[in-house]
């Protein structure tokens, strides 16, 4: 699979997350980076040989527009929430792999529980491609933010689970094709 990289100027100071450990890292303005992935709502960059994740809300720091937000219908029936959640989860990407977390097979469960007032609580079990991946919290936070933006979702719990351990057999056919497997 051929990957294209785009050189970009970092035109203002910005905080990014170092991959794979998720540690915040400050980048000064005036340096150069390469965009290696612009999927979902974040950008993956290489800066001085280090892979980092730039939040889409900071896209202007590299001269880009913030990625479009997932649009949801205003009047959502409870019966439609599950499908909306799964579609939303497909907009979350591992910063090192150009495949969404659903097609990677990282989402093990997505259940809904009714809440008072007619909203639902989303219960999501997900894993990581490697138990020691430091980006787990960042990915889980993105899942929480995006799912809570869905009408009728009042609460969310994301559990990181490692049993059963993830392996390539959990990937969808489209993920395998995208990764040349």
UniProtKB/TrEMBL annotation:
InterPro entries: Fe-S_Maturation_MIP18, FeS_assembly_SufT_put, FSCA_dom_sf, MIP18-like
Protein name: Putative Fe-S cluster assembly protein SufT
PANTHER family named in the record: FE-S PROTEIN MATURATION AUXILIARY FACTOR YITW
Pfam families: FeS_assembly_P
Domain MIP18 family-like residue range list: 85-158
